[in-house]
Amino acid sequence: MSYIHIYKGFLFECFVFLTMGLMIFTLLLVLILIPLFIFFQHKKYNDQLPPGSLGPPFIGQSLSLLKALKTDRIEKWFQERITNHGPVWKASLFGYPTVVLHGPTANKFIYTCDGSLLSNTQPPSVSKILGSKNIMELSGNDHKRVRVALVSFLKPEVLKQYVAKVDEEIRHHLQTNWHGKHEALQVQPLIKTLTFNIICSLLFGIERGPRREKFLPLFKDMMAGLLSIPITLPFTRYKRAITARMKLVPMLLHLLHEKRDGLMEKTQQGNPHKDLITSMLSIRNDDGSTMMSEEEIIDSIIAVMMAGYDTTSVLLTFLVRLLANDKSIYSNIVREQQEIATIKASNEALRWEDLTKMRYTWRVATEMMRINTPVPLSFRRAKQDIEYGGFIIPKGWQVLLSASMTHMDHSLFPNPTMFDPTRFEKHAPSPPPFSYVAFGGGPRMCPGIELARMETLAMIHRLVTTFTWELLEKDESFKRVPMPEFDQGLLVRVKPLKQTVLSYEA
Ligand code: HEM
C-alpha cells in the first residue's frame, strides 16, 4: 500500500469523523433549540396558545397521524383529541407546530380567510415536484388570475361539449380492459389509468397513442414522490419524482409551443376551448399579451393532473365496491341508468342532459365522499398572529382542518357511519354551510367538481348497463398513504350483460 493510499484513507476517515460530528452537533442543536423555541412561544403568548402537546421535537404526532391514516382510523384519532382538548388544539405535524380546528365555523374561517392571514403554501418538497408557479402555491391576484383561466375551461357551459368525448374514452377503456376478461381484474389501477387518459385527452388535448403512453409513467413517478419522504438520494421515490419532472417539463413545453403555433395559424377560426392548454394560451390582457406565463401554464397543468387523477379514481373505486356489496343501492342505480339507456340508440353517446337525470347516482357518490372523503386533510399557514376562538395561532404555524372529521360529526350528520344517500335529497334537512366539504369551500374550492361529476356519472352509467361484477375478496382492506390504496387493487370478476352497448363511433 502506497503512502498516497494511506493519506487518502486518513483524509476519508477525517471526512467521516467531521461529517458525523456535524450531524450530532446539528441534532443536539435541534433538540435544545426546539424546546427553547416552544418555551419562549408559550411565554410570548402568555399561555394563549390552544391546549394540547407539541410532542417530541420534530416528529411530534406525525407518526401517530400517519398510522391512523394508514389504518383508516383518522376520525377516531381526531375525536380522541377533540374529546380531550375541545375543537381548537395544538400538535406538531410534519415538522411544523400546528393548530387543528374542527367544525363548520372553523371550516368557513379556514376556507374563506383572507390570503393575507392564511396562505396555502405547500412544503418546499411538494412545490419542487409541482413547480413553484402552480395554482395551489399562488396567492392573491396571481391565484385569482390563474384560477379564472382554469375555471373558464372547467365551467359547465364549456365542459358540456365534452361529454361525448369522455364517454368515448370510457367505452374504449371498458372494451379494451374489462370486456371478455375471464381473469380477476384490479379495479383501482384500471380506473386510475382511465382518469389519467380522460385528463390527458380533455385538458391537454393529448389523444390515444405513443405520446400519451410516454406521459403516464412520468406522472405516476411524480405522484408517488409527492407522498414520499423528501430525500434526494439516488433510487429514492422522491429523487425519481424530481427526475420525472425534469423529463416532463420539456415535453409539456413542446406541446405548449405546438398549440401556440396552431393558435397563431388559426387565430380567426380556432376554438379557444379546444383543451385547457389552448384555453390558457388564449386568455389575454387588455394589451393583447397572454395572461399566463409559460411557467404558470406548465406548473398549473401538472398540478391539475395531480389533483384530478387520484381523487376521482378513489371515488369510482369505492363506488364499484359499494355496488357489489349493497343490492338495494345497486338496483336503484341500475333502474335510473336503464331508464336513460332505453331512450337512446345502442351506440349513441351520452349527453349533458343525460347526466342531469342521474340525480340518485350523484347522491350516492356524494354520500360516498362524505364517508370516504378523497381529500381528508387541508393545510394552511398563518402569515401573521391570528386570534381564533379565544386563542392565538402564531405566525408561521400550520393550520389544519379535517374534512372527514367534520363529515363524521353526529350533530351535523345524524348516525354518521350509516351510508344513507337520502341525506342529500332535495327536501332533506340540510346541515349548516361548510359541513359538507368534500370539495373544500371558498375561493380555493375544487374547480374540478363538474369534471369529476361528469367522469363519475358516465363511468357508472357504462358499468351498470354493460356488466355485472362480484368482489373476489369480500373484505379487501385498504391503506391511506394518504390516498386510499386497496391491498390488491380491489379484485373483481366481471360478466358482460350484452355485447353491443360499448360500440361507439371511432
Ligand atoms: C372526486 C374528485 C375530487 C375531489 C373530492 C376534490 C377535492 C378537492 C378539494 C377538497 C380541494 C381543496 C383543497 C383545499 O382547499 O385545501 C381541491 C382543490 C383543487 N382541485 Fe379538486 N377534487 C376532485 C377532482 C378534481 C379534478 C377532476 C380536478 C381537475 C380538473 C381538480 C382540480 C383541483 C385544483 C386545481 C384544486 C386547487 C384549487 C385552488 O387552489 O384554487 N380536482 N379539490
From TrEMBL:
The keyword Transmembrane helix applies. Its cofactor is heme. One of its GO terms (cellular component) is membrane. Pfam families: p450 (PF00067). Heme binds at residue 446. Its EC number is 1.14.14.145. It is a single-pass membrane protein. Keywords: Heme, Iron, Membrane, Metal-binding, Monooxygenase, Oxidoreductase, Transmembrane, Transmembrane helix. It comes from the Eukaryota. The keyword Coiled coil does not apply. The chain crosses the membrane at residues 15-40. One of its GO terms (molecular function) is abieta-7,13-dien-18-ol hydroxylase activity. Its main location: membrane. It is found in: Membrane. Belongs to the cytochrome P450 family. This is Abieta-7,13-dien-18-ol hydroxylase. It comes from Helianthus annuus.
